[in-house]
Specification:
The chain has 3 helices and 10 strands; from the N terminus they run βββββββαβββαα. It is an alpha+beta fold. It has 2 domains: 52 residues, no CATH class; 139 residues, Nucleoside Triphosphate Pyrophosphohydrolase (Alpha-Beta Complex), CATH 3.90.79.10. Strands 7-4-9-8 form a 4-stranded mixed β-sheet, with helices on both faces. Strands 1-2-3 form a 3-stranded antiparallel β-sheet, with no helix packed on it. Strands 6-5-10 form a 3-stranded antiparallel β-sheet. Strand 2 and strand 3 form a beta hairpin. Helix 2 crosses helix 3. The radius of gyration is 20 Å and the shape is globular.
Length: 201
């Protein structure tokens, strides 16, 4: 049977791709590890004709900010990340851990808290699932321009106590991404999305 007759084919289809929701019946859901920062949840769910069990990190979601100044430089932050034991270059970012706080408000708060900056223009930039096979984390990245100093300088502690703030020309940041000199997934996604949008006009 041919593809035209509705049968299966090994030829890939040319379609506009888009993720889609796919509800399943969750048979059991338990927190199996109650962590300091993250919890691990185990769920059993019906899938096709069987039952599957999966464990994943339960995450409140997060925001990040691609801040671009009037010299077309991107604000990058270098911060220690213990799971990889590296000082990672990344964007100002933070958790959606305040009940009822909208992602945009959280992004504005994080830019002020981590970089002592405010922005007059905000727009959604890109949204991503960082590791959908092992976490339900969703990151909302916003593009911020019209930057100015915040009225308040915020205290920083823990890993934020020794963060390094660096303004990097966008072209240089994209070069660093393509050359494999930076590895943070949110930073890479945001930079390459900005570059792609500009390239496509």
């Amino acid at each position: 049977m041919s593809a035209a007759d509705g049968g299966a084919t090994s030829e890939p289809r040319e379609v506009a791709i888009a993720d889609e929701g796919y509800g399943v019946e969750v048979l059991q859901s338990d927190v199996v590890f109650d962590g300091v920062v993250w919890d691990i949840r185990r769920e059993q769910f019906a899938y096709h004709d069987g039952t599957l069990t999966r464990e994943f990190m339960e995450h409140p979601g997060a925001v990040a900010v691609l801040a671009i100044d009037d010299r077309d430089r991107v604000l990058c932050i270098q911060q220690y990340r213990h799971p990889i034991q590296m000082r990672n270059w990344e964007l100002p970012a933070g958790l959606l851990d305040i009940e009822g706080e909208a992602p945009l408000a959280a992004a504005q708060r994080e830019l002020a808290e981590e970089a002592d900056l405010i922005a007059s223009e905000w727009m959604p930039h890109i949204t991503l699932h960082t590791s959908p096979g092992g976490s339900d984390e969703v990151i909302h990245v916003f593009r911020a321009t019209g930057l100015a100093a915040a009225a308040e300088v915020f205290p920083r502690d823990a890993e934020e106590a020794d963060i390094v703030l660096q303004w990097v020309p966008l072209a240089d940041a994209v070069d660093a991404a393509l050359a494999g000199r930076v590895h943070n997934g949110i930073l890479l996604t945001a930079l390459l999305a900005e570059h792609a949008r500009r390239t496509k006009g």
